[in-house]
């Protein structure tokens, strides 16, 4: 007897097969019974005619409970009304493993309860849909950069050099070498790799010890960070625009069913094509002040500010040239306004905020060294990084795209924590 996955049933119409999986729901009318089961590749309705099943199968069906692991044997039928377009007329069912008192019932549960049972909640239809959209986006990321001649470089998770704010680090003792930190970014190492390969990207976990409880923040998340030799700030934004447009297009092309399952309004996503609007930080401040905000020039934009700016546009918005004092030390000073740097944030529409932060990198050795000192960092830890300006310094730029924020936006889910299988937040380390 062939063991067949649900996704493969189209190849076995009319044949008798065995399908393993888990029980979703059951119902019975006395003479005929139904079981919807899943196996990770799809859902399948199985039909049990009481007078046609083998001895004992009807009694075994009566014992089935939600999430019991079973193997159903029967004949594959084509049925346009059935989930996936195919149905199994069952002759037998074997209970591989029972499921007693499964905690997540069809009734409504609170979010706290669901995250305490995240290991089980992952099985639900909407969580499966989110995971499949995320998977598609991850594959699209690799395809995008591979097609454009980028090299993937894996950078350290443990590092002695920080990339962002010193107060946002997870630290640990590293043998006899003092403190090491969980990486906030792979960027600094990516810059070194760009001098070797020209165009690279990193894709890995990053960590921020921010005591934030917002719907946009995790303490552990995945980031995609390209770094490109000889790309200035404008070329950097063009790459971001092409990249984001491609990811959205790919999700719409290949994961429309999952987006429908999530009840995602596709119309806003269908508008995500270049060019994206661009405004300067100074223009952003003026706009916010005109809307009644008391924000002052020199203050970093908060989540509410980003939302207020982005809602005027139906595409992602670039905000450029922030004050240097609120941005990282490695960003290039703006020659037209030394108060600012040649950077940008890319804000997603629909209230999802910043999904990308990028900049042209400071190429002047002395300016970079001074910025490192100004931020209270130890220049000795950055000797290798300063060498990149000392030995064949070059114009280069890059950015980081937060995967979970991007997935949350494309899926239309309200909180970033559902965009990763096991989220880490300041109040959550279980499961």
Quick description:
This protein is α+β, with helices and mostly antiparallel strands. It has helices spanning about 55-60, 110-115, 120, 125-145, 185-195, 235-255, 255-260, 265-270, 280-290, 305-310, 365-375, 385-390, 405-410; strands spanning about 1-5, 15-30, 30-40, 45-50, 70-80, 85-95, 150, 160, 170-175, 180, 200-205, 220-230, 280, 315-320, 345-350, 355-360, 395-400.
Molecular structure report:
With 431 residues, the protein is of the alpha+beta class. The chain is elongated. Helix content is 29%, strand content 25%. The protein contains 13 helices and 17 strands. β15 and β16 form a beta hairpin. The strands form 3 sheets. An 8-stranded mixed sheet has the order 7-11-12-17-16-15-14-13. It has a 5-stranded mixed β-barrel with strand order 2-3-4-6-5. The protein has a 3-stranded antiparallel sheet with strand order 8-10-9, with no helix packed on it. α4 crosses α6. It has 2 domains: 96 residues, OB fold (Dihydrolipoamide Acetyltransferase, E2P); 302 residues, Bira Bifunctional Protein, Domain 2 (BirA Bifunctional Protein, domain 2).
